[in-house]
Amino acid sequence: MRLPTATTSKPADRAAPDKPLFGPVRAAWALYQLALRQHRHGRRWLVMLVLALLPILIAVITHLTETAIPARSLEFNLVFMLIPQGLLPLLALVYASGVIQDEQEDQTITYLLVRPIPKWLIYLMKWAAAVTAAECLAVTSIVLTYATIYGDHHSAVSIHDIIYRCAGTCGVQALAVLAYCGIFGLMGIVTRRVLVVGILYTALFEGLFANIPFNLRIITVIYYARLMLYRLMSFRVNTGYRVHDLAAQAWNFTPSPHHHLTGYPPDWVCAAVLFSLSVILSAVAAFVCNRREFYVKTPSKTD
User: Fold this and answer.
1) For the purposes of burial, counting CB atoms within 10 Å of the CB of 210, is it exposed (0-12), middle (13-18) or buried (19 or more)?
2) Beta carbons of 220 and 252 less than 8 angstroms apart
3) What pTM was estimated for this model as a whole?
4) Own/partner pairs for 234-243, CB < 8 Å, 24+ apart?
5) What is the secondary structure of 237-280 as a DSSP string?
6) Does residue 224 contact residue 270 with C-beta atoms inside 8 Å?
7) Cβ atoms of 131 and 32 closer than 8 Å
8) How far apart are CA 119 and CA 182, in angstroms?
9) Is 298 exposed, middle or buried (0-12, 13-18, 19+ CB in 10 A)?
10) Where would you tag: which of 64, 204, 236, 245 has the fewest CB atoms within 10 A of its CB?
């Protein structure tokens, strides 16, 4: 009589360990949340928050010292001149340029590279977190500036008009910030002196070229944002004896007698240029990041 023998399961019969579905996607989402939390803490966040509140402070001081200034003029100088040319490029430069450089300087890039996600996706997730932080500060600054400017002008300006202008401005400027983040994100990958190069770019392109009535301004971000804003809302101010078109004079636009911009790129082209610029430049930066070898300094051993 043959005794029964113990059967052993073959390796193929053993249940394979469960692999997490969408592992890289979950790791990328976790990286995005981690990067976003980092942007909400630290001295950089406080400094950027103070800069974002600077237009509000100027509006308050102006209300206390210049009671006769029209609200529309104050709005134009703060919301459509100071914020787009000074604050928005600076926010994008500070956040987007350090997507990878900050990790290298802090010697934490190794912890990112050991995650189960490719380097190009690491860049895109951290870049998306930087865009989110910059957009939040930009929108907060614009909304609070509008609230401060028109806080004492409800009788002269309709609340619906204020909300319309504020919402339209936030939408257009958010698209401009997205384009700036694409530009400065790529700069942070290709050069280590990104702050110097970024400031020179902002001063030369967005500060000089965008304000001269030549075709050279079509290579600037602010030019397309201004075209959309001019078509979206009115910038005319009645001084009692003459109606001034603040935007046409300051931005060197030549509107028709009916205040229409003819011969300029339409709004859909302006929006497509800004959005495509951000997508293309962020894709190029991710490609360069994926092909780059990162070296981290290791502490030297001591006897």
Assistant:
1) buried
2) no
3) 0.86
4) 234/259, 235/72, 235/76, 235/80, 237/70, 237/72, 237/73, 239/70
5) EE-SS-EEEHHHHHTT----TTS---SS--HHHHHHHHHHHHHH
6) yes
7) no
8) 17
9) exposed
10) 64
Q: pLDDT (tens digit, 9 = 90+) per residue, 86-138?
A: 999 999 999 998 888 877 777 777 777 777 788 899 899 999 999 999 999 99
Beta bridge partners of 237: 244
Domain boundaries, given as residue ranges, for the chain: 29-291
Q: Which residue has the higher pLDDT, 261 or 180?
A: 180
Question: Token pair for residue 98?
Answer: 């350090």
Give residue 293's identity as a one-letter amino acid code. E
Contact (CB, 8 A) for 281 and 185? yes
Q: What is the token pair recorded at 97?
A: 């340029």
The total number of residues shown for the chain amounts to 303
